[in-house]
């Protein structure tokens, strides 16, 4: 009988999952250190909000990269961390929105707050679409939704685009970084198009 490859052994996959969880916590650790050492600069509230938003956005992109990595490497370990990374992205997005309310615009008249500027509307749309994905990410919900799960979770592509629009719309100067993120998202979406056709990218459409 063939012995499983080292990378397929449960202990290796577990170690990989722990590493991924640790890496996903790094932005929070850095933020905690910066708060503890009071190194957040002249506007700590803004800095906290921005760093949490950036962590949510980066983790969203990393989550989107898991399927291509699995296809290229043939290793299922990438998919074993996908849901966890997506949930971390949601976790950071929740903290980002809470920080925004707490430190920037306050808790009164939420409708006026979220519709104040176009870039905030884009962020709010991205966040609202993330909620059903987080809620339906448990094993039980995957089972319950059956073949409707995948069409729903294709919302992730729209979420990434809305988050990117939110990101680039608020840029005051140097947009090089935003353009680079945009190109990565475009590349990841183009791969889905190549593999599954355009319907593979459309939320709620059955591929
Ligand atoms: C209700 C939802 C949201 C609100 C109200 C909101 C609000 C904000 C605000 C006020 C900023 C700082 C803008 C500035 O520098 O003046 C920001 C930055 C940012 N947000 Fe959001 N956001 C929301 C959702 C999201 C979501 C869902 C993501 C990603 C998944 C995201 C990613 C980002 C990124 C990447 C930045 C830029 C950080 C940087 O400059 O390094 N936001 N957001």
Low-confidence stretches: none
Number of domains: 1
Task: Report how far apart the termini are.
Answer: 38 Å
Assess the beta-strand content as a share of residues.
under 5%
Tally the helices: 10
Helix content: over 70%
- Provide the residue-averaged pLDDT: 95
Q: What small molecules accompany the polymer chains?
A: protoporphyrin IX containing FE
Q: Could you state the oligomeric state of the chains shown?
A: single chain
Strand pairing plus helix content: what structural class? mainly alpha
Q: How many individual β-strands?
A: 0
Instruction: Specify the biggest β-sheet.
Output: none
- Please tell me how large the radius of gyration is: 18 Å
- What are the secondary-structure elements, in order, as H or E? HHHHHHHHHH
Overall shape = globular
Give the tags.
transmembrane, mainly alpha, binds protoporphyrin IX containing FE, 207 residues
Detailed description of the structure:
The chain crosses the membrane at residues 12-33, 53-72, 84-105, 117-135, 155-172, 178-195. InterPro entries: Fe3_Rdtase_TM_dom, MsrQ-like. Heterodimer of a catalytic subunit (MsrP) and a heme-binding subunit (MsrQ). α2 (44-73) packs antiparallel against α4, α2 runs parallel beside α10 (176-196) and α6 (118-135) packs antiparallel against α9. The protein has one domain. The protein has 10 helices and no strands. It has 207 residues and is an all-alpha fold. Helices cover 75% and strands 0% of the residues.
């Amino acid at each position: 009988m063939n012995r499983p490859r080292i990378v397929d052994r449960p202990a290796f996959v577990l170690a990989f999952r722990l590493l991924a969880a640790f890496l996903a916590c790094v932005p929070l650790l850095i933020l905690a250190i910066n708060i503890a050492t009071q190194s957040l600069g002249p506007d700590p509230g803004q800095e906290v909000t921005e760093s949490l938003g950036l962590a949510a956005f980066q983790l969203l992109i990393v989550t989107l990269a898991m399927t291509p990595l699995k296809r290229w490497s043939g290793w299922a370990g990438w998919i074993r961390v996908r849901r966890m990374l997506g949930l971390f992205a949601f976790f950071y997005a929740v903290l980002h929105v809470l920080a925004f309310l707490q430190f920037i615009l306050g808790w009164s008249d939420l409708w006026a707050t979220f519709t104040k500027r176009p870039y905030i509307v884009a962020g709010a749309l991205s966040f609202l679409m993330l909620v059903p994905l987080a809620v339906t990410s448990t094993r039980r919900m995957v089972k319950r939704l059956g073949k409707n799960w995948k069409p729903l979770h294709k919302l992730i592509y729209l979420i990434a685009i809305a988050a990117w629009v939110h990101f680039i719309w608020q840029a005051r100067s140097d947009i090089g970084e935003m353009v680079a993120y945009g190109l990565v998202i475009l590349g990841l979406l183009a791969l889905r198009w190549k593999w599954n056709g355009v319907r593979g990218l459309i939320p709620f459409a059955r591929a």
